[in-house]
TrEMBL record:
Alphabetical list of Gene3D superfamilies matching this protein: 3.40.50.10090
Organism classification: Bacteria, Pseudomonadati, Bacteroidota, Flavobacteriia, Flavobacteriales
Sequence ranges assigned to domain Tetrapyrrole biosynthesis uroporphyrinogen III synthase in this UniProt record: 30-239
Protein's recorded name: Uroporphyrinogen-III synthase
Example of a GO biological process term: uroporphyrinogen III biosynthetic process
Molecular-function annotations in GO: uroporphyrinogen-III synthase activity
Length: 253
């Protein structure tokens, strides 16, 4: 039987939720635990002069492939820095509803040509194929998933990838002497950041909660223990998994 220590503090390696009714706030109130939020990684824009060095001239493209909200923000930031007026005829291929919805921050929706996938990048393929004569630009991150170029290359289209933003490790040195009962991670880069900031990190009694298989793998590769994992059929969200664990751990008070 694993000895469950009582949980009083949780550190979530993400920015604080902007919404008032975040399940984390409910969890905190209900379980009387203190939850802190701190991004272990952050996104930084690549300056437009570096993008020019990648041989990108925005005038050459008729369609933009957008895989995330960051891609949307940084495409329009770079367009502005380059004083490029995005033409109304530009086509936008968005990986998900959320990305398409976010585009409204920059473009008048009903006047634009916006094509939306379901969820995975592969779902965009039939849409892109339909417009295979366009010249596509993929403004992306330095950590692009390998399946994205594979899929695009398989479509025999004219496309170019350019790094518009980078994932950067945040400085966490002020957390050096702070301990939390549970650390929550959502990506392998979060784990990378932990060890970059604290090369001597020892898990000891700290519980590690992780979301997603690639994150679990990253934790195990570092020889750490996964104490709480999501999603599972009974706990599809991280907050549910934490709730279930804390219920058990704090029962014996």
């Amino acid at each position: 039987m694993i000895h469950h220590m009582k949980v009083k503090t949780i550190l979530v390696s993400q920015p604080e939720p902007k919404i008032e009714n975040s399940p984390y706030f409910d969890l905190s109130e209900k379980q009387k635990v203190k939850i802190d939020f701190r991004p272990f990684i952050h996104v930084e824009g690549v300056p437009s002069k570096d993008i020019r060095q990648q041989k990108v001239d925005l005038n050459n493209y008729t369609a933009i492939i957008l895989t995330s909200r960051n891609a949307v923000d940084h495409f329009f930031r770079v367009a502005e820095e380059m004083r490029f007026k995005v033409p109304d005829s530009m086509k936008y291929f968005c990986q998900s509803e959320a990305v398409a919805y976010y585009l409204q921050k920059y473009v008048v929706y009903r006047k634009r040509k916006i094509y939306v996938g379901k969820r995975n990048f592969a779902d965009l393929s039939p849409l892109i194929k339909k417009y295979k004569d366009e010249k596509f630009l993929l403004p992306t991150t330095d950590k692009l998933k390998p399946e994205v170029p594979e899929i695009l290359n398989g479509l025999n289209i004219n496309w170019k990838e350019a790094v518009f933003y980078k994932t950067v490790i945040s400085d966490l040195s002020d957390l050096e002497n702070v301990t939390y009962d549970i650390l929550v991670f959502f990506s392998p880069s979060g784990i990378e950041s932990l060890f970059h900031n604290f090369p001597e990190f020892k898990q000891n009694d700290t519980k590690i909660a992780v979301f997603g298989n690639t994150t679990i793998k990253a934790v195990e590769e570092k020889g750490l223990r996964v104490d709480i994992a999501a999603p599972t059929p009974e706990t599809p969200s991280m907050t549910m998994a934490l709730q279930k664990y804390i219920d058990k751990a704090n029962k014996g008070k």
